[in-house]
Amino acid sequence: MHNISFLQNENLPSFAQFCISDSRYEDLRTHFAKKTYRAGECVQSEGDTITHFGIVVSGILKAVSYSRDGEELCNAYFEEEDVFPEFLYLTGNRHYTYLLYVEKRAEVLWIPIFLLEEMLSADAGLVSALLCYVSQRGLKNQLYLNCLNYQTVRERIAYWIMGVRKIEARQEQEVHMPRSQRIFANMLHVNRSSLNQELKQMEREGYFRLDKERLLHVEGERLKELL
């Protein structure tokens, strides 16, 4: 198998960083649009035509659908530096298949599709950054699905921590958690209060130390023993 050198550059900026701050796109940014949305606002409706790529500058968005009983089903969250609707567009779908709502007041940078396609055609580094982003997001989505193979809250937490460390190739004893515990609970399909209780109990037992949105001093070998 041939190695593709530009895909292996560890110093490559993220796709969002390329678009937001790379000096080569300074002139093109006059065509970008930055908008702020309040919590609860609907940004895109199901069936809307995809005309722009969005980059979350701050805040949190969520992709949702509704069951026939009116229950909200959250398909994905988009946090800082996340990109959407990446999977839809790259698989040839030109319309939103979900509702896009603001979970937490957010600022979004919108890039016209035609302009993004020009940028990608001219810059292999930008293509590499997008491929890396899409690959990592796909792995994280699969990680959440795999968590459901475990029955207890503790097992799901342990599996998620070990999985994130592999995806992000982290050797240090630190893991960044989702921006809110409610989001974390939703993605693990567990009750929020049960998640909170289990995290605190695992901290007391020395598996890690809770520090706001981080888990510090993660004991990887001990977590493996839970799985």
Automatic annotation (TrEMBL):
Where does the secretion signal sit in this chain? none
SUPFAM superfamilies annotated for this entry?
Answer: cAMP-binding domain-like (SSF51206), Winged helix' DNA-binding domain (SSF46785)
Which keywords label this protein?
Answer: DNA-binding, Transcription, Transcription regulation
Q: Where is the Cyclic nucleotide-binding domain?
A: 20-94
UniProt GO molecular function? DNA binding; DNA-binding transcription factor activity
Q: Which domain of life is it from?
A: Bacteria
GO CC aspect terms = cytosol
Pfam annotation, one family: cNMP_binding
Entry-linked PANTHER family: CRP FAMILY TRANSCRIPTIONAL REGULATORY PROTEIN, REGULATORY PROTEIN YEIL
* UniProt protein name: Crp/Fnr family transcriptional regulator
Q: Which organism is it from?
A: Eisenbergiella massiliensis
